[in-house]
Design a protein that fits this description.
Layout (H helix, E strand, L loop, with lengths): L7 H11 L2 H10 L4 E2 H8 L3 H13 L3 E6 L2 E6 L3 H12 L6 H36 L5 H12 L4 E7 L5 H5 L4 E8 L2 H14 L4 E5 L12 E7 L8 H10 L1 E12 L5 H7 L8 H10 L3 E8 L10 E7 L19
């Protein structure tokens, strides 16, 4: 079970770290999404060294997390149980009508608007090629409906979306999980994902840069891991599945979405598809090798017949017994 208390000295240190107005303002801002030092500098109207000093104290107190993305560092509220709960409890009791906090939130809205503009520009530059591929398979809404059916409606603690792209799966399943993480190697796509999460008002998910073959997450830390339309871009899909399985808690589930075998060579030549779909036999073999059991499969055929793409869903589970935290019966049980 999770430890839900702090020793006296640690509690005092934690409270000391937040006993300053700028640091409380930073916590309030980070409760609304991931931000960089540059973001916080422009919002708070303070120098970079001063903001960095505040962040260092909050980080050392365990109240915020820091992760690197290329040359940039992002910060967000801590995922750690007790300190994260303390931070959220303090934020919940702040008066948002305070003039200083109102100004911070207005500037935060400007930062998020600028993110959205960058995301829109990236989409505009790539939309034509993506639209051509979408026409070859069933609609995104049909795929998402199938995903929701196969995952079910029971809430769970944590979700990892590998190759998150636009962050759409984090958005789709946000009502079910307490903590969501999306990983992508492409910084342009991370810009898109952050903008989409901001627009949807989702604050229980974050995205970060990482290698699909060496995910920047702890082992056995997620209840659901998803890999949506990613494997066909990889030269070693089996290694990616093995790494995703490493992140699963006992009893956790891995959901893979990709294409069934096809013969559309232009996808290899023009869109960097290294694999022209996957068979059930191939996928089951990889899942078994990773220590998982394939529970369910589902097929969504294209209306285009032989000229189209069939979307395939594979749901596998980690067969080990759950010996720790049970699946939450409601999201309200968790606040960190």
């Amino acid at each position: 079970m999770r430890d839900t208390s702090l020793h006296l000295d640690l509690m005092v240190d934690t409270l000391k770290a937040v006993a300053e107005s700028s640091r409380l303002r930073i916590l309030a801002l980070l409760s609304r999404g991931d931000l960089t030092v540059s973001d916080l500098t422009s919002i708070l109207g303070q120098s970079q060294p001063r903001v960095s000093r505040h962040l260092k104290l909050l980080y050392e107190a365990g109240l915020i997390n820091r992760y690197q993305e290329g040359a940039w560092a992002y910060f967000r509220l801590s995922d750690e149980a007790v300190r994260g709960e303390i931070a959220r409890a303090l934020i919940a009791r702040l008066d948002c009508a305070d003039p200083l906090l109102e100004r911070d939130l207005e500037r935060l809205a400007t930062v998020k608007s600028q993110r959205q503009e960058k995301a829109t520009a990236y989409f505009s530059a790539n939309a034509r090629s993506w639209d051509r591929i979408r026409l070859l398979h069933v609609s995104d809404s049909a795929v998402e409906a199938a995903l929701k059916r196969i995952v079910g409606k029971t809430p769970f603690q944590s979700m990892l979306d590998v190759g998150t792209g636009t962050g759409r799966l984090l958005e789709l399943f946000s009502p079910l999980y307490v903590r969501g993480v999306g990983i992508d190697i492409n910084r342009d796509m991370l810009t898109v994902a952050r903008a989409n999460l901001d627009r949807a008002g989702i604050t229980n998910a974050q995205v970060r840069q990482g290698d699909i073959y060496a995910l920047p997450v702890e082992r056995e830390s997620f209840d659901l891991v998803t890999i949506h339309q990613v494997l066909h871009f990889l030269d070693d899909p089996q290694a990616a599945i093995r790494e995703a399985a490493r992140a699963l808690r006992p009893g956790g589930r891995l959901l893979i979405v990709d294409f069934a075998p096809h013969t559309l060579e232009f996808l290899r030549e023009e869109h960097a598809h290294l694999r022209l779909g996957f068979s059930d036999e191939q996928m089951r073999g990889w899942l078994t090798e990773a220590g998982l059991a394939c529970d369910k499969t589902h097929e969504l055929e294209s209306k285009g017949g032989d000229a189209g793409l069939t979307v395939k869903l594979w749901l596998a589970c980690d067969p080990r017994l759950i010996l720790a935290d049970p699946v939450p019966s409601s999201l309200e049980q968790f606040v960190s």
